[in-house]
Design brief:
The chain contains 7 helices and 7 strands, in the order E-H-E-E-H-E-H-E-H-E-H-H-H-E. By secondary structure, the protein is α/β, with parallel strands linked by helices. The protein has a domain of 122 residues: Rossmann fold. A 7-stranded parallel sheet has the order 3-2-1-4-5-6-7, with helices on both faces. The longest helix has 25 residues. It is globular, with a radius of gyration of 17 Å. The two termini are 27 Å apart. Bound molecules: nicotinamide-adenine-dinucleotide. Nicotinamide-adenine-dinucleotide binds next to helix 1, helix 3 and helix 5.
């Protein structure tokens, strides 16, 4: 990957999280200059709440011209629709879908003409699942947003894509394993083992597995890839 993004400048959201931090690192290894943002500032990661319109606009303005934006900030939520509180549904939609809209809108207005915008969706944006109603609704929305914006931006040479990770070993998936284990009366390890058993590749994904695809999408290797929802899941969904 060395040199693939040489001379480019990128903005990455969710940069303090598992996938976002790996994207920052992978972009740097590929030669890009990267600014990372997250809910809370941490080291060289700047503070930005992606649900706050004014903060997103101000952040993108302050960061200045960029070639590539990767939006990895997000939250997860589990629970059956029949008992899901409206406030929780709204919270998930607000961070995952409204946040994607705010970041993508600000990004597409400002990226340079051969720029890219990559939204981290999920395999849950392509297939629903019992207990995942809020999360899946938000990620299906991200893919609809990606496909529409991709068509609007393509005439300018800007490529907009989504990546759809499967089960990736991060703080998010470990927190879910703890939550589901408590609900099912089993252990977090047993929950993760069940995930693993459903993945033909025989392992959970790593944040680096997803980050590499984000580098590819920003690079000239993906020059005709636009409006795609690229699945990164070790064949789980297929
Ligand atoms: N881990 C998985 O298995 C998996 C699978 C599919 C999709 N995803 C998606 O990948 C993305 C990254 O997830 P991850 O696994 O790295 O999780 P993570 O929890 O490790 O990281 C998510 C980051 O987003 C940040 N964030 C949350 N709300 C924010 C807000 N309002 N403003 C700014 N930042 C905010 C968090 O602070 C955190 O650093 C998410 O969109 C997630 O839905 C993850």
């Amino acid at each position: 990957m060395a040199g693939l993004l040489h001379g480019r400048r990128a903005l990455v959201t969710g940069a303090a999280g598992g996938i976002g931090a790996a994207v920052v690192e992978a972009f740097r290894q590929a030669g890009a200059e990267v600014v990372g943002v997250d809910l809370r500032a941490d080291g060289d990661v700047r503070s930005c709440d992606v649900t706050d319109e004014a903060e997103v606009e101000a952040t993108v303005e302050t960061v200045g011209p960029v070639d590539d934006v990767v939006h990895a900030a997000g939250v997860v939520s589990t629970g059956d629709v029949a008992t899901l509180p409206l406030a929780e549904f709204r919270r998930v939609l607000d961070v995952n879908l409204v946040g994607s809209f705010l970041v993508a809108r600000a990004a597409v207005r400002r990226v340079r003409d051969d720029g890219t915008v990559t939204l981290v969706a999920s395999q849950g944006g392509l297939r629903g699942g019992a207990g995942w109603g809020a999360y899946c609704a938000s990620k299906f929305g991200v893919i609809g947003l990606t496909e529409s914006l991709a068509q609007e931006a393509a005439p300018r040479g800007v490529r907009v894509n989504a990546v759809c990770p499967g089960s990736i070993d991060t703080g998010m998936s470990r927190r879910v394993a703890v939550e589901l284990a408590a609900r099912r009366g089993t252990s977090p390890d047993a929950v993760q083992e069940a995930y693993r058993a459903g993945i033909p590749a025989g392992r959970l994904g790593t944040p680096e597995d997803v980050a590499g695809v984000c580098v590819f999408l920003a690079s000239p290797l993906a020059s005709f890839v636009a409006g795609a929802a690229l699945v990164v899941d070790g064949a789980e969904l297929s």
